[in-house]
Amino acid sequence: MATQHISSALPAPALSAAYPMANPGYGKRSAPHQLPRTREDFSLLPTRERYVAGFVDHLPEGAAMSVKQLAKQLPLYGQQAISTALNALSVAGHLRRVRCSVTNASDETRWVYRTFWSRTARDNEWWNAYLATENHSPDEAPAPEEPDAEPTPEATGVPQQRTPAQAPDTAPAQPRTAEARPAYLALARLGRNDHRLPLSADDCTALEPLATQWLDRGVSIDYLTHALTAGLPAQVDSPLGLLRRRLTDKMPPRLPNNENPSPGTPAPTRRILMECTDCGRPGQPEALPDGLCRPCRAAHHPDTPPAEAAEAADVRARMTNLRDLLKTV
């Protein structure tokens, strides 16, 4: 007799007590700004994917997310079925696997593997923008989730006031110099680097306080520029509104004064790569739409040409052999 799954929700307390945790800095990491849990979560997914999604959603932060561990806890499905379900959840916008390298001032590099999870389905542009600005250190605990908090609405009340026309006998005011104002200059250069983000002088002035807060929290101009330009849609109708939202939603955390690097010390470099949910091949987020590399996307598509399907099978076989080899080292 088939088991009837009335809801995707699973009892979270038992999971927190029994499920194995990954090493600190590894494992599950919840994405921000998720909607509250309801009985309708994942209702549009097939039964297996809904069941796996409900289980993963209730796992605590830092839980082990390997296919082997999930299959041990879900006896209804084997490892192959769990792997296929995770691929479907990645395509549906709930999951992304990434590897993050952090190189400190001593040139020591550490790779951290994480599985980012979002109960609320996200599109590729959202994931690319979030991963580009996600800046938790490997050992930093994630911020507590606030499911009931609604996104800050875009300011649409009073239009921005323009400078009133001056009388003919009034001398024009001297424009403020942009020198020694790095936040203003960074905003002014956005339109020259990307034609989708043209900002007027008034727009740069309006956004300058928010951009200055980013720089005051220790990020560089390059980091600020990348955070504002990563994962842009093909057409931006309101550059001012989009940039205000990104500057507000992606504001980096403020570190204690003793943790801010001194001016003479180079800041640690950080690099993030997304992993194909199926085969584990690393790449830039933009190159892995739906969290899958091109061969794996072709393998899961019903109209895949035989040559591309064979390439996908060869990639998975090579990645499996590489993982087995690493385990023996």
Tags for this model:
single chain, 329 residues, alpha+beta, 5-stranded mixed sheet, 11 helices, 9% strand
Largest sheet, spatial ordering of strands: 1-3-2-4-5
The low-confidence runs, each spanning 5 or more residues with pLDDT under 50, are: 1-14, 136-179
Strand content: 5-15%
| Class inferred from helices and paired strands | alpha+beta
Mean pLDDT level: 74
- What is the straight-line distance between the termini? 46 Å
From the spread of the alpha carbons, the general shape counts as elongated
Q: How would you characterize the largest beta sheet? A: 5 strands, mixed
Indicate the multimeric state.
single chain
Number of helices: 11
Radius of gyration: 23 Å
Helix % is 25-40%
Query: What's the SSE pattern?
Result: HEHHHEEHHHHHEEHH
Total strands: 5
In short:
The chain has 329 residues and is an alpha+beta fold. The protein has eleven helices and five strands; from the N terminus they run H-E-H-H-H-E-E-H-H-H-H-H-E-E-H-H. The model is unreliable at 1-14 and 136-179 (pLDDT under 50).
Structure description:
- The protein is an alpha+beta fold and 329 residues long.
- It has helices at residues 12-18, 47-57, 67-73, 79-91, 124-133, 182-193, 201-216, 221-229, 239-249, 294-300, 306-328; strands at residues 27-30, 95-103, 109-117, 269-275, 282-283.
- It has a 5-stranded mixed sheet with strand order 1-3-2-4-5.
- Strand 4 and strand 5 (282-283) form a beta hairpin.
- The longest helix is centred in the C-terminal third of the chain and has 23 residues, at 306-328.
- Residues 1-14 and 136-179 have low confidence and may be disordered.
